[in-house]
């Protein structure tokens, strides 16, 4: 793989990863409501989903999507439906934030497994991420050179940029937590978050790809 090809990949992935999307929005929302530490569990789930898609890409995912277009359509419908569901849940969420430090008694919070699983489902059900892994990533592979090493370089590069973006969104969400302890701002945050999830879901439904 040529250096200029790698740098082009880095720049492209940077803009893809740092732009607001379902994964980043979910990590930020978890950081606001549950704290930075628990947001890392959601981040781990999202990241494992991304790695899974990239691994499938290396195994020939793009060829499967070309041979069976119905598979991508089904994944697209499921992914859009899940984002719409998340939007509804966020819109209807309780406006009283979970304050673990100030709680007088035991506070019911999602289990680590639940946080991880939800993050994974959001990441794996995003058809745009599937399209990236299946159609975009293979374009940076030089067929004249060893493919395994090239895929490894691309996956590691993507992983470093993706994790850095997760951390930035989680820290940003934590910095807003003080403001969102009040009911009014929290209600607006829930509704804006829900509206964005719904917008992503509708965009997926309306896309032709």
Automatic annotation (TrEMBL):
Membrane topology: Multi-pass membrane protein
Membrane-spanning segments: 6-27, 39-59, 65-85, 148-168, 188-206
Subcellular location: Cell membrane
Protein's UniProt keywords contain Ligase: no
Domain of life: Bacteria
Matches recorded under InterPro entries: LeuE-type (IPR001123)
Stated name of the protein: LysE family translocator
Organism name: Novosphingobium pituita
């Amino acid at each position: 793989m040529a250096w200029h090809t790698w740098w082009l990949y880095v720049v492209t992935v940077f803009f893809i990863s740092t732009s607001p999307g379902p994964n980043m929005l979910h990590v930020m929302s978890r950081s606001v409501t549950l704290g930075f530490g628990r947001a890392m569990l959601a981040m781990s789930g999202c990241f494992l989903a991304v790695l899974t898609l990239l691994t499938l890409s290396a195994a020939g995912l793009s060829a499967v999507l070309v041979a069976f277009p119905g598979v991508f359509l089904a994944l697209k419908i499921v992914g859009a439906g899940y984002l719409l569901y998340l939007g509804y849940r966020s819109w209807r969420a309780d406006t009283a934030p979970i304050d673990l430090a100030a709680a007088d008694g035991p506070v019911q919070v999602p289990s680590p497994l639940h946080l991880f699983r939800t993050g994974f489902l959001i990441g794996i059900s995003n058809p745009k991420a599937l399209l990236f892994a299946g159609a975009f990533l293979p374009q940076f592979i030089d067929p004249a050179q060893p493919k395994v090493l090239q895929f490894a370089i691309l996956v590691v590069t993507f992983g470093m940029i993706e994790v850095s973006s997760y951390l930035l969104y989680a820290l940003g969400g934590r910095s807003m937590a003080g403001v969102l302890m009040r009911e009014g701002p929290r209600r607006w945050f829930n509704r804006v978050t829900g509206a964005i999830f719904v917008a992503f879901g509708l965009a997926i439904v309306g896309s032709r790809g």
